[in-house]
Known about the structure:
This protein is of the alpha/beta class. It is 46% helix and 14% strand. The chain is built from nine helices and five strands. The N and C termini lie far apart (38 Å). The mean pLDDT is 93.
Amino acid sequence: MTQNQHDLIKQAFSKQASKFDQSRSVANRLHLEWMLANLSIHSEYNVLDLAAGTGIFSRAIAPFVRRLTAIDLTPAMLEQGTHGAQSDSLSNIAFVQGAGERLPFPNSTFDMAVTRFAVHHFAEPYFQVKELARVVRPGGVVAIIDLVAPDDSLLAATYNHLERLRDPSHSKALTTNALIALAKAEGLNIDHVASQQIEVNVKNWLDLSQPPTDARTTIFERLNEELKTH
């Protein structure tokens, strides 16, 4: 990613850090349980969580594995995650600051690498997925969990536009097929694909990222127009 994209991410998530763990969509326990149910986790695994934020997913995985490393760009998010792990009495999580396109780990370090709700922030996700494949041992697991754009290109463009209005660090949500192609391009075998619809309260969604008033108004207007046409 460019330095500009790094700066946008740090700015956006420094602002969100204090409220991130309270987000009903990001930290929803039922959603986390669904994600865990779709991972083949082993108690001896050494796991990497890329773009871990406050470690919401890291802390959900940690009780079931030997060790977990949560890496993120934003110091404020990592600070919140450290406090959260301490509150949860989790001693097997290490929080590390770093960029996904230059992971500070040797080849084949981890048994599993996960990334959740992050790919849509990567300007060129090819580089982050390449790094995930590099740091996972042969036969290990890479799990990519993200927002997905609709297959309709016009609808997808509108969706991505509204997401960028809400959060300028949003780059582009990919379709399911594009995410699969991204993983295959790095030689990853696709063993499992699952999806789930998540209902999001618009006010809470906007409150988390705190967009300017004009952007907030535009998003409400566009969503209301969409509702009127269906």
